[in-house]
Amino acid sequence: MAKRKSVLPGRRLTLGFTILYLSLIVLIPLAGLVVKTAGLTLPQFWETVTSPRVLASYRVSLVTAFFAAVVNVVFGLIVAWVLVRYRFPGKKLVDGLIDIPFALPTAVAGIALTSIYAPNGWIGKLFDPLGIRIAYTPLGITLALIFIGVPFVVRTVQPVLQDLESDTEEASVLLGAYRWRTFRRVILPELIPPLLTGFALAFARGIGEYGSVVFISGNMPMKTEITPLLIITKLEQYEYSQATAIALVLLILSFGLLLIINSLQRWSNRRLRSS
Fold first, then answer.
1. Which residues form the ABC transmembrane type-1 domain (predicted)?
2. What CA dihedral angle connects 38, 41, 44 and 48, to 10 degrees?
3. Is 85 exposed, middle or buried (0-12, 13-18, 19+ CB in 10 A)?
4. Is the pTM of this model over 0.90?
C-alpha cells in the first residue's frame, strides 16, 4: 500500500529548519550571554549576582510579577467568562480593548499609569490622604504588570471556554448539582491547563518588563528598583560582564519557575485525560 504524501514538506526539512531558526533566534543569543558572562571570574560573578542591591532587584521583579500573574488569572478568567457566555451592548468594543496592552508602546503605558496613580493623579490623590501610595511603590509596579499581562490570560482561556460544550453543564444542573459545584467539578478542570499557560506567559512577561514599569516604580535602589533597570544601568556604565551576569541569573530563575509551571500543566493534562 503506497504511503499517502503529506502536503507539508518532509520531516527532515522541517526539523532542520526548526533547529536552524531556533538557533539563530534563541540559542545563539543565549550562548552569547553565557560567553560574555565568562569574562568574570567565579568570585567576581558571585560577588556581582549576590550584592544586596541585585538581590533586592530580584525580589522586587519576581514578587511583583508573581502577584500580578495571580491577579490576572482570577480576573482574566472572569473577563473571558463574561466575553464568552454573555451578550451585552459594546461587547466587541470590550473584546478589542483587551488587546490594547499588546499594541500600546510600553513607555506610553508607563507614563499614563504614573500620571493616574501618582499622588497628584486622578486615582492617586484619592488614596494619598489615606496614607496609601500607589505610584513609586511595589503596588504600583504590580498594577503596571497587571495591565500588560491580562491579555495573556484572557486570550488563552477564551478559546477553551468557547469550545466547552454547554450540554455537560446543563446535565449537571439538571441532576441537582449547584452551580458552584458544576463549575468546580465540570468546568474548572478543563480550564486549569489554559490558566496555567496564561499564568506562565503573564509571569514571564512581567519578569522582563521594563518600559511600563520604569516610570511608575520610582527606581529607588533596594526598594522599587527592578532587575531590567539595573541591567540597563550596568550597560550604561559599560559594565557589560556584570550586566550579562545579572541577566543570566534572572534567566535561570525565570526558566526554572516556568519549567515548574509547565510540569504542573502537563500533569494536569494527563490527569484530565485519564479521568
1. 58-261
2. 20
3. exposed
4. no
Residue listed under C-alpha cell 526558566: 255
Residue type, 60: V
**pLDDT tens-digit readout, 118-169:** 999 899 999 988 889 999 999 999 999 999 999 999 999 998 888 876 656 6
Q: Kindly report the CA angle at 35 between 29 and 41, in degrees rounded to 5? A: 150
How many whole angstroms separate alpha carbon 124 and alpha carbon 118? Answer: 5
Cα 186 from Cα 183, distance rounded (Å): 6
Q: Are 210 and 226 in contact (CB under 8 A)?
A: yes
DSSP summary character for residue 130? G
Provide the residue count of the chain: 275
Calpha distance 134→129 (Å, rounded):
12
The domains of the chain, with CATH numbers, are 51-274 (1.10.3720.10)
